[in-house]
Amino acid sequence: MFSSGLTEPIRWAMTTDFTPNLDIDWSAMLLSTSSSLSSQASNSRLLTEKPSSIPLVIPTKLTMLPHPSESTNPLSSAVSRGPLAISICTAIVRHEITRLKSTDDPTVQAKVMIRNIVSDEVHILGAGLSGLAAATILARSGKDVHVHEIRKDSGARFDGDFQGIENWTGEVDFFDELAEWGFDTNEFKSDAFGIIDLIHPDDVVTHPETDGVAFRVVERGTAGHTIDQGFKRMALESGAKIHYGTRKPSEECDIVAAGPRESSAVAYGEIFETTHRNIVAFQLNDKLAPGAYSYLIIIDGIGLICTCLWRKQRKSGRYLDETIAWYEENYDLNRKPIKRVGGKGDFGLPTKYEHEGRFYVGEAGGLQDFMWGFGMRYAITSGVLSAKAILGELDYEKEIRGRLVPLVRASAINRFLMNRVGDRGFKIVANQWMRDQRRKGDGLSFMRWLYKPGLIRRALWPIVKIGMLRKKVLSDGRVVHRMPFRKPLDRDTWEPSERAREIREEWDSIRKGGGKLSFQESDS
The whole model's pTM is what? Predict the structure, then answer.
């Protein structure tokens, strides 16, 4: 939806100027030549009087690329009375239509033509990574870009927590893609990892590794070195205008890049100071992280322990306390708590990614990883693709369905299977991961295999869609099949350990002294 819409059909106007040498019986001429003028029937009413010039208006459908037009310049005309005889000499001048971009898709070109005729303004809802990525591309191309963000700054919904940008859903290193799109990855701090600690449900630790980069850890938030602020700077430098603390209806925006509205899963974490070396540890444990996983990330003396819950729980803070107790017992952390953070994920697949002229990107478009919760790569990619669609370089719906939707569906199938296994299933996954590494010499190949659509996954998709997702009609008219927050299981009821109780008491004391809590942990 554009900020200033079309009020009339687009018209290609041509003028034929008749200068008759003698009086013309116009009614006789109209009757006798109606067949020759049938292709211009919509304009035949213009011949009922004797004008000095006759505008011939040919309406063009908005979904078609206009053909080269012709204007007819009169040289002379003669009409005799009696049996109607007409002699009209004309000169025809062709006007070629130049394509805006080198593409053979007329639908894309028509949309570009309409946008350019209406306005160079582009309005984006949301100043997260996807919205800022789109804003940067568009502003560099000369568009007047306005980004509308309800929060006071980019990254404000995060609180200094670490997140990963994975490298297994594409054959190309994502930072190489960013550079190709014109983004400077030196604008924010990142740390690359090619090896992790994989913690099995029975506490066995193995080490998946790759010669390249498996993923990079970045910090989210409002500090200058975060990825959110890095993308903000690039958007501003490109000429985009960001309006913080403002509300803008999605119906008035061209790109919708808003965050999650509901919860399909939650994550709780604690940020702390530590003397431990940089590390990433990933734990599959259905007790500490119901239906999901927990992780430990340490970067330059700052650590994050986080547990993810894919099943709804009461008193959910106890899962974080127990997870911290486990990591303290198994890693020499020398932990000094700073604050506790949290977030939610809303997972669903819409039926359309372009709706009523608006492009839905990132979380607003359901472009999230159902299995592990990764989303930054999909968010940035979809933001770039939406910008290129506005510029006429591609068809957004087609590109998203070909490039990202198969990955999202694969992750949803993986999540469906994970929801139906406990620690025994997690152990099988961990063992298979390591067997694949020994066989191929690359721990990343197993993760890539998990996201490859194949015959078995395609056969499972209808079952997953019915068994795990629920159809919902959103307020903007879109239809989405989303994953609801699952109910708890009997095995989710257990008594906390003594160390977990102590950690809870320590945190209560820290919080009374000013320790920050960025989420409500009583109920998830």
Answer: 0.77
